[in-house]
């Protein structure tokens, strides 16, 4: 995650975004610009160390337009709607005796955020070719 960035590590290729076409800095700018405040909270903890399982929520308001590059290398823009973006998931973190993370397994729907960003599929691109609308599992 430290090398590619959190967005690139957790998002899959789609008609809205592709980690292969967005570097660490560009991905951070795209999402931070769109949602200046994107809070993250732990909702429930299921088990303690050394295997910590928990449910989380990541949310914010879409204050500015989303701009990124999709799986067809097209620049994608979705106009800001000012509404909430709210996603949830589950993580299992394995930690050592110093509580340092050794591994992470994360389950969530990576397209949930994009369905909320483009509520009425109001996507615009710079070229006419279309990308694959299905995210990878």
Automatic annotation (TrEMBL):
InterPro entries from the UniProt entry: NTF2-like_dom_sf, Pathogen-related_defense
Gene3D superfamilies in UniProt: 3.10.450.50
Top-level taxon in the UniProt lineage: Eukaryota
The name this protein goes by in its record: Pathogen-related protein
């Amino acid at each position: 995650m430290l090398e590619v960035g959190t967005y690139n590590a957790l998002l899959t290729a789609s008609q809205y975004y592709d980690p292969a076409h967005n570097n660490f800095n560009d991905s951070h700018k795209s999402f931070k610009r769109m949602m200046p405040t994107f809070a993250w909270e732990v909702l429930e903890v299921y088990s303690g160390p050394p295997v910590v399982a928990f449910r989380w929520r990541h949310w914010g308001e879409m204050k500015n337009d989303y701009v990124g590059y999709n799986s067809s290398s097209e620049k994608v823009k979705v106009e800001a709607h000012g509404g909430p973006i709210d996603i949830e998931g589950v993580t299992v973190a394995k930690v050592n005796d110093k509580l340092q993370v050794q591994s992470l397994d994360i389950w969530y729907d990576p397209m949930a955020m994009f369905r909320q960003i483009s509520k009425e599929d109001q996507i615009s691109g710079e070229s006419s070719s279309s990308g694959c609308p299905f995210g990878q599992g």
